[in-house]
Fold this sequence. Notes:
The chain is of the alpha/beta class. It has helices spanning about 15-25, 40-45, 65-80, 95-100, 120-130, 165-190; strands at about 10, 30-35, 50-55, 85, 105-110, 130-140, 150-155. It has one domain (about 10-190): Formyl transferase, N-terminal domain (Rossmann fold, 3-Layer(aba) Sandwich), CATH 3.40.50.
Amino acid sequence: MVEETPRLAVLASGTGTILEAILGAGLPVCVVIADRPCRAARLAENAGVPVEIVERESYGPDFDRLAYTHRLVDSVKRHQVDVVAMAGFGTILAAPLFTDYAGRILNTHPALLPAFKGWHAVRDALAAGVTATGCTVHVATEVVDEGPILAQEEVIVEPDDTEASLHERIKSVERRLYPETIRLFLENFSKGANR
Ligand code: GRF
């Protein structure tokens, strides 16, 4: 039996160093979707990977999250995506994505979930004075930073750490752990375990 390679979409908004690691690991990325022009989108373009900018029309209170999510889901469907990996995507998405792709959306978060959910996970860990934090790869659900945990790794907080230095050390772990975990997930997906 010939197993088809699953089609992976990466959602990114920022500097895209995690995306870079995913591409560097040779994972089957069929499209990179960004919500704004960003380094991640340029990086994908330079790597010859199809890029879609599903541009967010507003960052204010009038932002229509549901309509935006529908536009994004349309783009994911157009590319016949099997699995979605969020890699620093800056827009919280609404139910339609999590319904249509339930159990097939992955995320990496820069803290040891369930500790320090949210946008400021690294800052919050530092402010709490913890001696160790880390990163978590999990299946994403409609509730932000919830969902079954697939992998976690600890990172020690150094006494002179700033938010930037600690985040960079966490990201250096994410750049290894996330591609590894995606690869395993895709292997299981091919075998039908996640369908
Ligand atoms: C990572 O720390 C990821 O966990 C968080 O956003 C960061 C993305 O980093 N969700 P980069 O833009 O890929 O460098």
